[in-house]
Amino acid sequence: MHVDGKISGGYAILCNCGNAFATERLGLALECPACGHTELGVDVAADYYLRSKRPSSSHDVSSPPFAAGLAKA
């Protein structure tokens, strides 16, 4: 189960069974109305955050932007 995207009323959730549904917020737990599968809201939210913040292949992840301001030892 994962967040497919943000919508005006909250989030579009896609379940592993293929069913999509909407929820206003990612609460304690999410339950698919079609198959009954449940996931913890914090796990779904963390997955969404990590997927949306993943660096693109054009960035050099070995040298993060904040490293430029650090003093060299």
Provide an overview of this structure.
Residues 53-73 are annotated as: Disordered. The chain has 73 residues and is an alpha+beta fold. It has one domain (2-53). 16% of the residues lie in helices and 29% in strands. It has 1 helix and 5 strands. It has one helix spanning 41-52, and strands spanning 2-7, 10-14, 20-23, 29-31, 38-40. The strands form 2 sheets. The chain has a 3-stranded antiparallel beta sheet with strand order 1-2-3, covered by helices on one side. It is globular, with a radius of gyration of 17 Å. The N and C termini lie far apart (45 Å). 11% of the residues are buried.
Strand content bin: 25-35%
Radius of gyration: 17 Å
Spans of at least 5 consecutive residues with low confidence: none
- The assigned structural class equals alpha+beta
Choose one word for the global shape.
Answer: globular
Q: How many H/I helical runs? A: 1
Percent in helix: 10-25%
What separation lies between the terminal Cα atoms?
A: 45 Å
Strand order of the largest sheet: 1-2-3
Number of domains: 1
Order of SSEs? EEEEEH
Query: How many strands appear in the DSSP assignment?
Result: 5
How would a textbook summarize the main sheet?
3 strands, antiparallel
Overall pLDDT level: 81
